[in-house]
Amino acid sequence: MERKVRIHIYVSGFVQGVMFRVNIRRKALELDVKGWTRNLEDGRVEALVEGNENSVKKLVEWCRTGSPGAQVTSVEVRTEECKNDFNDFKVIWY
Predict the structure, then answer these.
(1) Which residue of the set 6, 21, 25, 44 is catalytic?
(2) With a threshold of 0.90, does the pTM exceed it?
(3) Cα-atom radius of gyration of the chain, to the nearest Å?
(4) Nearest to residue 23, comparing CAs of 8, 10, 37?
(5) Is 78 a residue of the active site?
(6) Per-residue b/e over 53-65, b at no fewer than 16 CB within 10 Å?
(7) What would the pLDDT profile of 47-75 be if each residue is shown by its tens digit?
(8) Considering 6, 25, 39, 44, which one is annotated as catalytic?
(9) Is 39 among the catalytic positions?
């Protein structure tokens, strides 16, 4: 069985107003990754995700390009202890 991981992702660049959160959710569901995503006031998109290590790595790689229209300048990844907190993947709307 593949190891489960939990990471926090912070995506910088032109990533708000280009359907980034909707598309990261779509990709996460395709990869069976659970968690949430939201916009931050500083213009970044944040996501907290859990899943099989390989699937989470694929999601991070997707974030490096993002949705059509996005211009990603950097992706910061912070590893955390896996807690199995999530049953699905949600977009947090303000």
Answers:
(1) 21
(2) yes
(3) 12
(4) 37
(5) no
(6) eebbebbbebbee
(7) 999 999 999 999 999 999 999 999 999 99
(8) 39
(9) yes
